[in-house]
Amino acid sequence: MSAIDKIYNYFDREPDLKVLFIFNDEFLADELREVQWKEGYRFVDFQGDWFTVKYNLDNAWADDRVVLYFHQESPLQKKSLRENFPLLDVLTANMEYKSQDYTAFMQQYGLPDTDKPMMRFVERNIMALQSERMLRLFAPYYQDRSITTDKLVRGFISSYMGVQRILEWDAILLRVILLGRDAEQQKRTDFFVKLRKCKDTVEALGRKLTDIFGTTIDDNTEEKVADVVKVLKYNAIVQNLAPVAADNYKQWRIDNTLALQQMNRLLELALSQEKTADALLEVMDELGDAVRDDELIRWYGTDANYYFVPPRLCQPIVAGLLKDKMETEPEAVIRRIEDLMLKLNGRGMTAAAMDYCLTVAQYYQKALALGSLTLNTPNEYVMRYQEDYYVLDQLYRQATEQYFKVDPSCGLFPDIQQAKHSLDLHYSKLNNRMNQEWTRCIQETGGMGGVHLSRQQDFYEKRIRPMQKKVAVIVSDALRYEVAQELIGELARSKHVATLKAMLAMLPTETKYGKPALLPHRELKLYGQEDSQNMSVDDHILSTTEKRSEHLQRYKDGAICVPFETVAEYNQQKNREIFKHPLVYIFHDTIDKAGHDGTAKQVTQACREAINELATMIPKILASYNVTEVYVTSDHGFLFNDIDFAEKDKHKIEEETIERSTRYYLTRSDAEATGMVKFPLSEVSGISNGSDVYVAVPQGTNRLAAPSGGYMFTHGGASMQELIIPIIICHQERDDNKQPVGVMVLDRKLSIQASRLRFKLLQTEAVSMDMKERYIRVALYHNDEPVTPVKDILLDKTDPSLDNRKIQVDLTLNRNVDAKVLQLKVFDAADDLNPLIKENVTNNTLIENDFDFE
Question: SUPFAM superfamilies, alphabetically (predicted)?
Answer without folding.
Answer: Alkaline phosphatase-like
